[in-house]
């Protein structure tokens, strides 16, 4: 490594990149791990980055994948979604936050953001890597293709292109991270929500073998993939809205703005095939497209040789009901409608929920149904499957800290664990009645405990509690 005007410069296989020093280490931004996906290339596998001459400026953030604006009602989710679409070609890029770009061979953590396969980027404020670098870890945050370019299943194009992007980023880490002080043999991939679903899918992907040693799945869905028939319905609807044939060739000349404009036409599609229900409960028209759910195909990938930390929040569904003001207005009829959409035997499911939660209001039952379908069921299935093939290498958690946002109603909703994982829960922009953690200060020590468990897992493979036993399935309570 050399320096210029006190800024650190790292030599990578693709070329030199200049970063900045901060109080926790060094930060390098907007490093492309693949060629820019433009035109027909948006529907092709990620292509190798051709490299560059001179020293690349890594002091400013990259563009972001084309994406629509997201509104979560009364709750300010800007720290989660980031700036939205920042146009530019080279958005298949990573940011690296490291203690130092030396020969330290430190643990590496690669974060895959969420956003329903439609939104999000590594520019979101929540994904500040300062605490990881401070604590001796090299953090890599990844952008990937979203929406139609990333996940629409099209004849003439490989499926799951957003997942292929993450795979390409992991190959970049394998080949490059030692230049940033990281150990390419000690890589932990972790993701949240859609990013966690992608991360879980890597466990069942043969091409992922050897690219990482550990995985953390935060509020993902090991059974959240669309079947090919379900994906075909989304593709047909998109082609009809665009007025073109459902082929990659026909989609190639269409500008990204047009893809974003038709997204409302894809919302709420009926994906019930008679044998398969919508695993995302209508919340996104995009997901992975697989013939077998990842939780049922772990033996095909690296899962048996990989440590897994996996879990959910206790009130995941609140994010989709409280900010919109419908938690309290939900009726028993609304709960039955949702159960009918999600389950072949809705009466039995509701009866079980009422036994388990006898004091719940209709809104709370609705939230519990969403949480169970979107996150808890698939998480349990993946934990059990992994424990069967990996021995004592599965760890399960349940995060229960209740945000006091929106009059104390948001609770332990989807995304609330993230400020604690990144150890930024004391940031003022997360506090206030309409902000993610509410007006109350974060509990003393919770961020240090959660962040420390993630660091320990990435370093040693053990987060600090007993491994999961499928015969006595108990999740470690965090923040309860």
Automatic annotation (TrEMBL):
Entry-linked InterPro entries: AB_hydrolase_fold, CarbesteraseB, Carboxylesterase_B_AS, Lipase_GDXG_HIS_AS, Type-B_Carboxylest/Lipase
Stated name of the protein: Carboxylic ester hydrolase
UniProt-listed Enzyme Commission number(s): 3.1.1.-
Spans annotated as Disordered: 1-22, 39-69
PROSITE patterns: CARBOXYLESTERASE_B_1, LIPASE_GDXG_HIS
UniProt cross-references to Pfam families, sorted A to Z: COesterase
Domain Carboxylesterase type B: start-end pairs: 7-464
Uppermost EC category: hydrolase
Gene3D superfamilies: alpha/beta hydrolase
Family: Belongs to the type-B carboxylesterase/lipase family. Belongs to the 'GDXG' lipolytic enzyme family.
Alphabetic keyword roster: Hydrolase
């Amino acid at each position: 490594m050399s320096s210029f005007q006190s800024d650190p410069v790292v030599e990578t296989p693709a070329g030199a990149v200049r970063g900045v020093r901060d109080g926790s280490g060094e930060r390098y931004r907007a490093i492309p791990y693949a060629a820019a996906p433009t035109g027909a290339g948006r529907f092709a596998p990620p292509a190798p980055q051709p490299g560059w001459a001179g020293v690349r400026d890594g002091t400013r953030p990259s563009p972001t994948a084309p994406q629509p604006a997201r509104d979560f009602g009364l709750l300010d989710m800007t720290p989660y979604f980031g700036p939205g679409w920042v146009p530019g070609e080279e958005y298949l890029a990573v940011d690296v936050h490291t203690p130092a770009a030396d020969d330290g061979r430190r643990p590496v953590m690669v974060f895959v953001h969420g956003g329903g396969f439609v939104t999000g980027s590594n520019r979101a404020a929540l994904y500040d890597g300062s605490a990881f670098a401070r604590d001796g870890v090299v953090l890599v945050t990844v952008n990937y293709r979203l929406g139609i370019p990333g996940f629409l299943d099209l004849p003439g194009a490989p499926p799951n292109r957003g997942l292929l992007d993450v795979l390409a980023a992991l190959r970049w880490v394998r080949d490059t991270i030692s230049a940033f002080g990281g150990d390419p043999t000690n890589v932990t991939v972790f993701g949240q929500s859609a990013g966690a679903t992608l991360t879980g899918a890597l466990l069942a992907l043969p091409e992922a073998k050897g690219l990482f040693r550990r995985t953390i799945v935060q509020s993902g869905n090991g059974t959240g993939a669309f079947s090919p028939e379900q994906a075909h319905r989304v593709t047909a609807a998109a082609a009809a809205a665009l007025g073109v044939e459902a082929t990659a060739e026909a989609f190639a000349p269409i500008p990204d703005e047009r893809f974003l404009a038709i997204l409302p036409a894809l919302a709420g599609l009926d994906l019930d095939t008679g044998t398969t229900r919508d695993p995302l409960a209508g919340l996104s028209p995009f997901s992975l497209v697989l013939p077998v759910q990842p939780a049922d195909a772990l033996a095909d990938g690296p899962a048996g040789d990989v440590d897994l930390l996996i879990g959910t929040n206790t009130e995941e569904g609140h994010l989709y009901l409280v900010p919109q003001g419908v938690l309290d207005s939900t009726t028993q009829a609304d709960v039955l409608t949702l159960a009918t959409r999600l389950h072949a035997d809705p009466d039995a499911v509701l009866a079980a929920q009422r036994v388990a939660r006898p004091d719940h209001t209709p809104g709370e039952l609705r939230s519990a149904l969403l949480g169970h379908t979107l996150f808890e069921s698939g998480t349990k299935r993946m934990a059990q499957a992994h424990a069967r093939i990996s021995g004592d290498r599965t760890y399960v958690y349940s995060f229960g800290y209740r945000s006091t946002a929106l009059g104390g109603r948001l609770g332990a909703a989807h995304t609330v664990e993230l400020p604690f994982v990144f150890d930024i829960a004391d940031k003022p922009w997360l506090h206030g009645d309409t902000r993610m953690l509410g007006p109350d200060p974060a509990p003393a020590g919770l961020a240090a405990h959660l962040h420390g468990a993630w660091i320990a897992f990435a370093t040693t493979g053990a987060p600090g509690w007993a491994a999961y036993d499928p015969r006595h399935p108990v999740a470690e309570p965090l923040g309860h």
